[in-house]
Design a protein that fits this description.
Length: 196
């Protein structure tokens, strides 16, 4: 009987540890997606492994259309604990942007799976490809494998962006002045590598 109780306790502890590791990590995570008039950014607060709060940053969407839709979406996402909710009629673009931004933030809260991933995006001179290494759930290396960017313009972005992405553990970093298109391509390629 004692052996059976001990086995049940150990099984329960292992199960709860496994479920915590697979759940959302507490913290505040940023996500961004293209809306009707510009980018829509969200800060998603995870507490106790659940979506506790969603704050939509100042945006360029039409206020009288977007604001009520955003309020409805935030309530629905928190209630369902899932960004996959219905769009609000009359505010489709804004709805899709909020949903995509929350999905992106939640994906960051889930953490990254260990492995080596490649992703591509269009830069100034053509396709730019990166290789992203993830170890113990963290981004440990970002390398630009192939690009057709203008060397003397893109060089600083190709050097600085991978370091910034590793330091911030996010592809959402500041662009390098003078190499905006290349910077955005590196970020988009890293996002593609980690999310596709």
């Amino acid at each position: 009987m004692i052996l059976l109780i001990g086995l049940l306790v150990v099984t329960g502890v292992v199960w709860s540890m496994g479920s915590q590791e697979e759940g959302l990590k507490d913290g505040v995570y940023f996500g961004k997606a293209q809306g009707f008039a510009g980018d829509v950014g969200v800060d998603v607060t995870i507490s106790g492994g659940k979506i506790a709060e969603i704050a939509v940053r100042p945006h360029e969407e039409t206020p009288f259309i977007a604001d009520p839709a955003i309020e409805t979406l935030v309530k629905n996402i928190i209630a369902s604990q899932n960004p996959e909710v219905d769009v609000v009629s009359g505010a489709t673009y804004t709805s899709k942007a909020v949903i995509a931004a929350v999905k992106q933030a939640v994906q960051k809260a889930e953490g990254f799976k260990d492995g080596v991933y490649t992703g591509s995006a269009e830069g100034f001179g053509g396709t730019l490809t990166v290789e992203v290494t993830v170890a113990q759930g963290s981004i440990t290396k970002v390398a630009v494998l192939d690009n057709s960017e203008t060397p003397f313009i893109a060089e600083s972005a190709i050097k600085e962006l991978p370091e910034a992405i590793v330091a911030n553990q996010s592809w959402e970093v500041d662009v390098v002045s003078g190499a905006t298109v290349t910077s955005k391509a590196i970020m988009a390629a890293v996002e593609a590598a980690l999310t596709n």
